Amino acid sequence: MNKKYMFWLSVAMLGSMMLTEAQAASWSDTFLGYRYGTQFHEPGIEEEIEQHIVQFSHVSGYKYGSNYFNVDFIQSDRNDAINGGGSGAINVYSVYRHQLHYGKLFGEPLSLGPVRDLALTAGFDLSHKNSSFASRKRMLLLGPTLKFDLPRGFVDLSVLLAREWNHCGLDICRLEGNQDSIDFDPYYQFSLAWGVPFEAGSLPMKFQGFFNYNTEKGKDYFGVATKPERLSRTSLMLDAGEVAWGSSNNLWVGVGYEFWRNKFGNHGKPGVDVDAITFNAEWHF
C-alpha cells in the first residue's frame, strides 16, 4: 500500500475519532493564543528572525480518554523569506494527540507510586511552509503515557514511536542523487508535557509547557546523518481576566521561552540552535 495513502488513511481515522468523541465531551477548553519574539532561528540562516505566531488550541475529555489539537500560524520576517523573496514566510503547523486512559477503559486506574494512570497516545503532526525549502512535514506517533498524580493540573511523560515524511524544494535537493522528498527512519520521541496552576500571593498563575527529545532519524536529504533533537517551550502565565474583572480562565498573559537544539536533526550549520524569549497571550472561550 502506498505510504502517503497509509498516512492520510491514519489521519482520517484519527480525525473521525476526534470528531465523534468531541460530540460527547465531558469537559473542554479552547483558546486563541498569540506569541511574539525576535530571537528565532532556522537552519542555514545566520540572522535572528522575528516571528508573530497565532495559535488555536483545543483540549477535551470524554468517556474513554482525551483529545488535544493545536495549530500555529507562524509569520516570519524577511530573514526567513517566502519562496521568491519580498516578504517573510508563513508556516502552518498542526498537532493532534489522542489518549485512551486505562482507568476509563477498565474502570480502575493503573496507578503505581506517583503515577495516577496509564494511557495509550496516538497522533500526528502536519506542517506546510512557503519558503524556498518548502517543508511539508507529515508525522505519525504512537506509544504509552504515564500520567502523574497532582493535586491540580497535569504532568504526562510519553515514550512515542515516530515516523516522519518531509519535503525539500531547493534545487540542490534534486541534484547529484539527492532527493526532494524523504522518508526518515523510525525514531523515538520522549515527551514531557505539563500544566500546573498555582497562586503567587493573591495572583492566579500557571506554569505550562513541554520538552521533547527525539532520537536520530537516519540521513537527511543530502546524505548527512541527523543528530538527536531537543525542543522545549515553556511559559509562565498570569490569569489577567481574574485579576482585572473577576473572570477566571478567560485572558492569560505572560512570558515564554523556546529552547531548541539540533533543530529538525540538523547540526554543524547556522540556525540549528534557538534561545528565544516570547510574549504570550491566550483568550479562552
UniProtKB/TrEMBL annotation:
Organism: Halomonas kalidii
Domain of life: Bacteria
Keyword Signal attributed: yes
InterPro entries per UniProt: Channel_Tsx-like_sf (IPR036777)
Key words of the record: Signal
Signal peptide: 1-24
Protein name per its UniProtKB record: Nucleoside-binding protein
Listed SUPFAM superfamilies: Tsx-like channel
